[in-house]
Amino acid sequence: MIIIYFILVFGSIILIHELGHLLAAKAFNVYCDEFAFGMGPKLISKKFNETTYSVRLLPIGGFVAMAGEADAGFDQSDIPIQRTIKGIAKWKQVIIMLAGVFMNFVLALVLFVSINLINPTIQLPATPVISEVQSGSPADIGGFLADDEIIKVIYPSNDVVIPESFSDVGMYFQLFPEQEINFIVNRDGQEVSLFVTPKLDEASGRYLVGISGKAGELKHLTRFEAITQGFKDLKASSGLILEGFKFLFKGIGLNQISGPIGIIDQTNQIMTQAQSFQHSVLILMVLIATFSVNLGIMNLLPLPMLDGGRVLILMIEKIFKRSLSKNIENALMFGSFLVIVALMVFTVFNDISRIIFR
Predict the structure, then answer these.
(1) Tens digits of per-residue pLDDT, 220-238?
(2) Is residue 161 part of a domain?
(3) pTM assigned to the model
(4) Which residue of 75, 105, 237, 265 lies most exposed, with the fewest beta carbons within 10 A?
């Protein structure tokens, strides 16, 4: 079941991403030799018109082999220049490059909307007011009291969070394990500054301070509200990921980065909590939507092997009105490939360490 969950989550977001590239390339009459789901040796392949559609052994990626790409991997000598990605207008190339990211966001939006249509009852965000302080917890020792309203959280990196809901209060505790965090609370109309160090909770495996808030009210959504809530969920998911990148660029939370092994582990842990078949389907939909947004944003990074980097190269070529030489392009591709490989090795090390020492 773990393997099935992994293929459903990871496979679907890769498949929809590459399908975006394929559809955009076909729309602009770019020759596509192969559309592959997975990597490694071919298991199944079938040629329709001029494109071979294949399923490969390892469900950890995919690709569209387009004419004009430096790493296309097939003979392009007989293909006219106007049918290569290099032979079409720059704006068309940009659309093809960004079509995968676009499809990832479309997939996430469709899933978020569907989740709210299937389960139209949501819990509204609770206000950032403490309802209970656990006895003997870091918060209790730090002087927190019930009915304190948390108006500001200041992290050791000087990043400030103004919580709009109670869930915002501990959003980044995991990035600052065993480090003192400053809370500004409203207590009977007076601002009080409190300091507390999150401690590891063995049961949940998360760093907590020992406070809880009141449960948010339940609301039944109309069909229109379910659709608008889907857009809100997409915005919230994207914002959370972008905030995470902000910390990563500062070198904070690098040990929290996960790769394929982490995806498998997280998916398995969450799926074991499913209480029914419908619940498990909803959980899978949330996971696929969240990881799809993550993949879309990751691909916008300015690395030449990623979509964002390739668009950046196109923009540079447009500004200077000349194409990069093959040697420079190959060097940039190889350099970014090494960066991605290093990142993969790092995430595998992180995932295995986290599982072993959990």
Answers:
(1) 999 999 999 999 999 999 9
(2) yes
(3) 0.85
(4) 75
Cα–Cα distance for residue pair 346/125, rounded to 1 Å:
35
Q: Tell me the per-residue pLDDT of 281-299, one tens digit each, with 9 for 90 and over.
A: 888 899 899 999 999 999 9
Task: Return all residues near 26 (Cβ < 8 A) that are at least 6 apart.
Answer: 32
Q: How far, in Å, CA of 309 to CA of 50, rounded?
A: 28
Domain shared by 268 and 351, yes or no: yes
pLDDT at position 325, please? 78
Number of domains in the chain: 2
Bigger pLDDT: 251 vs 41: 41
Rounded Cα distance, 320 and 90, in Å: 13
Per-residue confidence (pLDDT) for residue 55, from 0 to 100: 92
The larger pLDDT score, comparing residue 254 to residue 212, is at 212
From 213, 246, 281, the end of a domain falls on: 213
CATH number of the domain that residue 172 is part of: 2.30.42.10
Find out whether 314 and 94 touch, Cβ atoms under 8 Å.
yes
Domain that holds residue 177: 130-213
